[in-house]
Amino acid sequence: MPVRGGQMRHILVLTVVAAGLGAPAMAEILPGDVPWAEDGSIARSLTGAPGNAEEGKVVMTTNALGNCVACHAVQAMPEVPFQGNIGPQLDGAADRWTEAQLRGIVVDAKHTFPDSFMPGMYKVGPFIRPGVAYTAKPPEKPEDIMPILSAQQVEDVVAYLMTLRE
Amino acid sequence: MKLHHVVKAATVLAASLALTAARADPVRDDPLVVNGEQELATQAPAPDHLGGALGDTVYSGWLFRDTDTRAMQKDDFDNPMFLFVDAGLEAWETPEGTAGKSCADCHNAIEDSMKGLRARLPRVNAGGELWSLENHVNDCRTNRMGAEAWGWNSQEMKNMTAAIGLQSRGMPVAVQIDGEAAPFWEKGKEMYYTRYGQLEMSCANCHEDNFGNNIRSDHLSQGQVNGFPLYRLKDQGAVSTHQRFVGCIRDTRGVPFEPGSQEFRELELYVASRGNGLAVETPAVRH
Prior knowledge:
The complex is a heterodimer of chains A (about 170) and B (about 290). With about 170 residues, chain A is mainly α. Chain A has helices at about 5-20, 55-60, 95, 100-110, 150-160. Chain B is built from 12 helices and 11 strands. Chain B has helices spanning about 1-20, 65-70, 80-95, 105, 110-115, 115-120, 135-145, 155-165, 180-190, 205, 240-250, 260-275; strands spanning about 30-35, 40, 45, 55-60, 125, 130, 215, 220, 230, 235-240, 285. In chain B, strands 10-9-11 form a 3-stranded mixed sheet. The longest helix of chain B is centred in the N-terminal third of the chain and has 17 residues, at about 1-20. The chains are: A mainly alpha (about 170), B alpha+beta (about 290).
């Protein structure tokens, strides 16, 4: 059935509104398309927009999200219990690294530190025997392996790290 | 007695969760003396094959646990695993299967015939296969008793491996890694350094590079297997070696191998060899 001009316009408008509500904008960079620089930094925001530092702090301290404090201590968050001591303390990170470098470290630290223990937060492979989250089950299709953080969450974490100055 | 064990376990679990921090290196000044009489070596010179990867000393996981958990392993009456040891000893004497025989009918006193076995397993059997204790148990059940094999992680199996393992308590772990064991050992070693799962973590990342450090509230040990099967307060139950391996690989967002698989027996041999010289602690207590 041919679609008349008027109807088409309505559909378009609806789509745009839905996209606006559902947050991630169209320009989002997918894990496979990350524009790495030689030194392991990523200059462009993955979402095309700046992140929200408050949200980033939540991501960093929530077990099911970034859980960065599992390995890193952050003195700027004294209220968070059981901070790990596997990686360096993150206070002053923004004095040591540029925003582009911090984005690269969060997306996949192995581009900055080869053989790093730090997991890639915006990476979908290749992995050895990857499971679907903590289910111990193999993926049925490649899309079942989701990045640990969304593009927006990465940007939020980067925004928070940029507040860590000494 | 049973109730006593359970209540005690629950209380200690609550206490250890409430403790905010047991963050430190291994405890160095607390000897593990069980029942006030037998001292178990919780440290040993690192085996040569490690080439210094763990420094000059290997440490039992017991030294990385908090005071309350350590105390539970010092007295068999406080160690909840002894419920399962008792059940295993009972099963030792109980005829089962079409042959109408018990373990004791062939092996007599467990204290004599099973002494030292735990310390040498896994090992290569007469047929050239690498066998863990569980394989030996099921071999007797199916081929000599006419009974059903027990599941690798079944309660019956853990009861029996705990009862058998206890007979080697205090003896140094001494698995063979050369000769016919060598190819299996090499494969286990390769696995130990393979970075599994979406988190891309190897056993060595946690238990070699970071023992003594904390991942959130977990105080990392060297991941030694000299205390298995052991009681895990978090699970309120007995845990086998392969069950622990499953948990650690799952925690990398990975797909573990099956309990009892060729891969996990090879890994078990390699991990056991990293603790050659440590005392068998079976049945240990951890949280």
